[in-house]
Amino acid sequence: MQQSSSVKLWVNLVIVYVVWGSTFLGVRYAIEVLPPLLTNAIRFLLGGIVFFLFTLLRGYSVPSLRQWLSAAWIGMLLSGVGNCAVAYAIGFMPTGLVALLVATLPGWMVGLDYYFFGKQKPSWLTVVGLGVGLVGMYILLNPADSLAQREIPLFPAFLVFVGSITWAWGSLQSPYLDMPPQMQTTAIQMLGGGVFSLLMSLFLEPGGFTKMADMTTQTYLALAYLIVMGSFIGYSAYVWLLHHAPPSLTATYAYVNPVVAMILGRIIVSEKLSTRSLIASGVVLTGVILITFGRRASNRAAKVS
């Protein structure tokens, strides 16, 4: 029984590693035609509706209003704000670098968890990791240089950081809320994120729906991949991990996804990174790994005490 649970844990972890690493490329293909916020809305609204209907066919009852609101709130933070920021940023920089910015998630989780949730003091290894990560981000964003010399635009990068903060908050808050069964939680979270994305698209992307007439076979395939693999399979695996795996282990996807995204971006669409970006990537990922191992050490120390 324990072995079966361990296998399920690692299967879900690998799904999040690989599938979510590949969705950055899927978003890039979709936004070649569609606006980014509308892309996110279509992805999660369709996915959420189909998935919720599937749960009803499986015999699930309709959740209570409190459970609906809890799941929709977390969905707005994760698939709404978080994924809208990512979709927007992919229009301005290589997918691998967007994934790298998202990799700051464990750092945000450490800070938010300490100040608002667990009140657990970060270990020295975590603090070192945060410092290393900040150095890497400074190298990557290059804020002291002129706009002409800067490889990454600061505003899209800032939005990704905002999305990562909301994602971290939602991930930490989720276990404390009254949620429906896991499958319905996934469906309602997708619906919450989809509704938020649709409202933002209507407000910020006037005329965005007219772009749907220009959708190509590639656009449809990209959306299908994002809905089936990124939402149904990847998002379901992530929700399962939130409730069955230590947060420090779940957060490891943040430094695997950028590697997957960079490899796929290089092989499939020939994305090239400068020497500065490659050095910064290595420094940031080193910091993320130190943060993750530091959180594990803190958790073990807390259990012992």
UniProtKB/TrEMBL annotation:
Query: A Pfam family for this UniProt protein?
Result: EamA
GO CC terms for this protein?
membrane
Domain of life, source organism: Bacteria
User: How is this protein situated with respect to the membrane?
Assistant: Multi-pass membrane protein
Domain (EamA): give its ranges: 13-141, 157-292
The entry's keywords: Membrane, Transmembrane, Transmembrane helix
| Residues spanning the membrane | 9-31, 37-57, 124-141, 153-172, 184-204, 219-241, 253-269, 275-293
Q: Where in the cell is it found?
A: Membrane
* SUPFAM superfamilies per UniProt: Multidrug resistance efflux transporter EmrE (SSF103481)
Q: Which family does it belong to?
A: Belongs to the EamA transporter family.
Q: What is this protein called?
A: EamA domain-containing protein
- Organism, by scientific name, is Runella slithyformis (strain ATCC 29530 / DSM 19594 / LMG 11500 / NCIMB 11436 / LSU 4)
